[in-house]
Each structure stands twice: as structure tokens, then as C-alpha cells.
Amino acid sequence: MWAVVRSLHGTDMRSIFLPKFLLAAALGGVVLAGFGAQKATANQASMVSTVAASDDDAEARFLEMADLISQSCAPDVSSGVDDVASASVADTTAAEPTPDSTLPVLVGPVPLTATEECAAQRHQLRISRALSGTDTATYGEIRDKLTSLNYPAARIHRMPDFSGEPVARLDLRVGAEHLALEVTDIDNGVMVEAFGAPEGVSVTEVRLEPHLDEPTS
Q1: CB burial class (10 A; 0-12, 13-18, 19+) of residue 16?
Q2: Residue 190's closest CA among 213, 165, 208?
Q3: For residues 99 and 39, which has the higher predicted lDDT (pLDDT)?
Q4: Taking a C-beta distance cutoff of 8 angstroms, is the pair 63, 76 a contact?
Q5: Would you list the DSSP string of 8-42?
Q6: Which contacts qualify for 190-193: CB closer than 8 Å, 24 or more apart?
Q7: CA distance linking residue 161 with residue 210, whole number of Å
Q8: How far apart are CA 217 and CA 215, in angstroms?
């Protein structure tokens, strides 16, 4: 069987005879190419969905852990009122951004409430114990250790090295809380410092006083 394909050149009409199996193969190639493109797009979308689901799972695990720690540190009603009041005052006294400045504006830390201080100690202890005796010579190694402790990668932020040692900050804020940690590599472990980050400010923009000496064991 043959198929006729006609083409027009000026006023001449010419006919080209092609076997039908060649015509079918050509059309099939177009269909397969389209199917391949659709499959590649679907695979990319699936990968994005998988990454997003993984991030959501990490955040859910962290929130569950943070809630358990907060419950164990929950004060009585009267002290809870004082905590909220002190936190509100601290937020209003945070440094205001300097107008016309294109550089990040560093602000001072805010006081932690009694509940946040308690939670900070719990987080500091579990991180210090987990990283004690380990080699975390790079920021990536600190980040990997923290993610293995159910701290989401999205909450871990790189900071400039301190005396050649990597430094990371961990945003532990949930809701209106202020708790954050700075994790610095030291010999055979890490130094973990808690501080309060104002609401609406990145933990990387909080100015902390540098440590002159590393803590001794």
C-alpha cells in the first residue's frame, strides 16, 4: 500500500509516493517524542513533590519535639503571664533598621522567657551530647549532625567562621517564641549558645558578643 503526499511548487503539482509503513513510523516517532517529554516533566514534578514532602516531614518532627520540650518546661499561670509581658517589651525595644542602608541591619538579642531558657538548656544538652567527641570541621558536617537530631535544614543557617572554626545558627522559634542557638565547632565537640531573636528578624541578623576564650571542660 502506498500513500500520496502532494506538495505545491509554484503552479506545478507534484506527487511523492511513500509506503504507508514509513508514514506510520514517522507519525509514531512524533507521538513517542511527545510522550517522552511528558514523562520527563512528570518525573521532574515527582522529584519536586518528594523534596517538598521530605521538608514537611522534617518540620513536623521538629515541631513535635519542640512541643514536648515546651510542655516539660511549661511554667505556672502567673509566671506565664510575666513571660509574655517581658517578651512583648523586648520586641518593642529591638533596634530599628537604619534608613537608606542596603546592608543587613544587625539587631541586639532579646531576653528569653523562663520557659525559653528551660527549653534552651534541653536543646543545648542534647546537641552537646550528640556532637561530643565528633569531628565537625566544616559547616556541612555541623549541619548534617543537626539534621540527624531532627532539626530541619531550613532552620539551620551558616555564619562566618570564628577563629577558623565553622559556626551555624539554629532557629528554634515557634509562633511568637524567640529561642535560637549558635553552634560553634571546638576541639572534640561544639559550643552551644542560646539567644533570643526578635520577631520578624533572621537569626543571622542578631548581633552577639564574640567569645574571647573557648569554654574549658
Answers
A1: exposed
A2: 165
A3: 39
A4: no
A5: EETTEEEEEEEEHHHHHHHHHHHHHHHHHHHHHHH
A6: 190/127, 190/128, 190/131, 190/136, 190/142, 191/215, 192/123, 192/124, 192/127, 192/128
A7: 12
A8: 7
Q: Which sequence spans correspond to the domains of the chain?
A: 2-51, 73-205
d(CA 62, CA 140): 20
CB 166 within 8 A of CB 156: no
By CB atoms closer than 10 A (0-12, 13-18, 19+), residue 208 is middle
Query: Would you state the cell numbers that stand for residue 59, as one nine-digit string?
Result: 518540620
Secondary-structure percent of the chain, ordered helix, strand, coil, rounded to 5: 45, 20, 30
- φ, ψ dihedrals at 195, nearest 5°: -155, 165
Residue 103, all three cell numbers: 546592608
Tell me if 3 sits within 8 A of 18, measured CB to CB.
Answer: yes
Q: Give residue 143's pLDDT band: very low, low, confident or very high (50, 70, 90).
A: very high
Contact at 8 Å (CB) between 172 and 119? Answer: yes
Q: Are strands 165-171 and 2-9 parallel, antiparallel or unpaired?
A: unpaired
**pLDDT value for 130:** 95
DSSP secondary-structure letter at 113? P
